[in-house]
Design a protein that fits this description.
- It is built from 15 helices and 13 strands.
- The chain is an alpha/beta fold and 369 residues long.
- The protein has two domains: 181 residues, Rossmann fold (3-Layer(aba) Sandwich); 170 residues, Glycogen Phosphorylase B (Rossmann fold).
- The radius of gyration is 22 Å and the shape is globular.
């Protein structure tokens, strides 16, 4: 009796960044039943993601592509990009007997959709951001056979005619084990036991609103000089340089990219999340699991994770005065009250963002094809 053929699933990424979509996909790949599924992980550039995947024990294939749909404006230039990639991607899919292409990134997704359909592989589209009002995006994503939304906020943004093939599946989130001893970081930044520390943890892009965080930091510093602020994340667009720190450089410290987010979550006293219109915020859930109090602006899917004054705090967007006031109140909250809120947050995060539940639901989709 011959063995049942494994389902071969391809996960393509650009490779020059690491974000929530990558971390969620890695958790999924690691937990998939390898007796049923065979994984093909594709990177189009050998960048920061490649090194990370190797450390995680995964072996990506480098398939070089220079142009991606959506990187430049204009219908003609984007269709030319699709045309160029067809002659590389279709043979790759056929040659590797790929059954399902699971797309997690919009640029990659828009570049892979047409080749996938011509190759007759099945197509899963993971919608991780609000559905954009872009005609080419609407046209191309129409060809996906299943759309996975990561929150109600994302699901509601879909065009009506997409919803009948869509399903909400929450992202998997677990805390990564500590990789190394951070003795020198602790010695450098955490010697003063009297200081309170507020954290911004995200790649610095427009919607993360680093400007709002810095305004809040300056206001809090003027009211309480015994508070320091840490900004941890990659700043490829140089947005931080546009923010004037003035005389606050000793108070607002830019760390840059860190592959140990848990260290910062567990050593700071408050996490501020100032981003807007996010389909999901992984850092909030990681913060809950790390037992750090969290204040987030009430935007996007944040209110699907945080219940105000129950497992965290939600602030009306752009209300600097309230954001400052609540931050100071949380830093001075009585230990027994804070412990209750942190425990509720941890229980909620473990239940709702359980990796095993995520893998079970995704596996069902794969097996239905």
């Amino acid at each position: 009796m011959s063995k049942k053929k494994k389902i071969r699933i391809c996960y393509p990424f650009v490779g020059d960044s690491i974000g929530g979509s990558h971390l969620s996909t890695i958790e999924l790949i690691k937990k998939l039943d390898k007796s049923k599924f065979e994984i093909i992980l594709i990177l189009h550039k050998k960048g920061i993601l490649y090194e990370y995947l190797i450390k995680e024990g995964l072996k990506p294939i480098i398939l070089k592509i220079d142009t991606f749909v959506g990187k430049k404006k204009g219908i003609a230039v984007n269709f030319l990009s699709i045309y160029k990639n067809i002659f590389k991607l279709i043979p790759f899919i056929i040659r590797n007997n790929i059954d399902i292409v699971h797309l997690n990134d919009s640029s990659i997704g828009l570049s892979w959709i047409i080749p996938t359909r011509f190759s007759k592989a099945k197509l899963v589209w993971h919608q991780r951001v609000v559905f954009p009002n872009w005609k080419l995006y609407k046209i191309l994503s129409f060809f996906s056979e299943k759309i996975i939304c990561i929150s109600d906020f994302v699901y509601e943004s879909l065009p009506k005619y997409y919803k009948n093939k869509s399903i909400k599946i929450l992202n998997p989130v677990t805390l990564k084990e500590k990789e190394k001893n951070n003795y020198f970081l602790k010695k450098k930044y955490f010697r003063n036991k009297k200081e309170k520390r507020i954290l911004f943890l995200a790649n610095i892009i427009e919607n993360k609103r680093i400007d709002l965080f810095i305004k809040t930091a300056k206001t809090i510093s003027n009211l309480n000089p015994n508070v320091k602020f840490f900004i941890v994340g990659s700043d490829k667009k140089k947005l931080l340089k546009k923010s004037t720190l003035g005389g606050f450089k000793n108070k607002i410290i830019y760390i840059g990219y860190s592959n140990d987010s848990v260290f910062w979550l567990k050593n700071c006293d408050l996490l501020l999340v100032t981003s807007e219109n996010e389909g999901f915020n992984r850092t909030i859930v990681e913060g809950m699991l790390s037992k750090i109090p969290i204040i987030a602006v009430d935007s996007g899917a944040h209110n699907e994770i945080i219940k105000n004054n129950y497992n965290g705090w939600l602030i009306k967007f752009n209300n600097l005065n309230i954001l400052t006031k609540i931050s100071l109140e949380v830093l001075n909250l009585k230990k027994n009250l804070l412990t209750k809120i942190l425990k509720r947050a941890e229980i909620f995060a473990k239940k709702e963002f359980n990796p095993n539940n995520h893998v079970t639901k995704i596996s069902q989709i794969y097996l239905e094809f």
